[in-house]
Amino acid sequence: MYSPKKFDLKYPQPTDGLRQTDREEDKVHREAQAEGKELSEKEKEIIREAKARYRLGARRLEKVIEQVYGIHIPHNRIHKYLLEEGLAKEEPRKKRRRKPYIRYERECSISAGHIDWFDKDGIKFCAILDDASRKILAAGEFKNANTENSIALVDKLVEDYWGIMPLEELISDNGSEFGAHRKNGKKEWDSRFKRHIGSLGIKLITSRIKHPLDEW
């Protein structure tokens, strides 16, 4: 059986002097943030460096900066500063008022995951994404997208993470790889994939038809 590849998505650590701040600097930062003051010069420098190094948008930079530099800067303040510096563009469509959308997301890491298949240049790719942290827990390239390989990836997840925290729920689309295409009028269905993860204590949840599973 093909053994899925493992992916390490850890961000590289900075190589210059902008490393973890000490407790006193963190305290000053939190107080300034609470009072709604402008970004400090150090915060601006960190944002500029992180933007140049990782080339990410404000939302992802918020997480990277907290992980790599040890301080939290809200993404809206990051985006505002990037706009002022000409390092980001305002998207008019995001200014329009939209219907509130509550995404299916857990607060605790590895309590729920998303599984999905992709096809690129004839190669089938499957991944399981942690619902809370957005980290890829298991992924691999396969010749075929089928139930057997879906089960193999789940087993890889169990091997790597069950000692840390067993997955409680797994969210999938209605693909035949999971047997969810067999739903009847009462939305009742059965498949080898569903039975297998059920034996591991994992509840399978399927998304509604024509509703994207998630943003990968």
UniProtKB/TrEMBL annotation:
Regions crossing the membrane: none
Compositional bias annotation for Basic and acidic residues: 19-41
Start and end residues of each stretch annotated as Disordered: 1-41
Coiled coil: none
The protein's name in its UniProt record: Integrase
Domain of life: Archaea
InterPro entries: Integrase_cat-core (IPR001584), RNaseH-like_sf (IPR012337), RNaseH_sf (IPR036397)
Domain Integrase catalytic: 96-216
Any one Gene Ontology BP term: DNA integration
GO molecular function, one term: nucleic acid binding
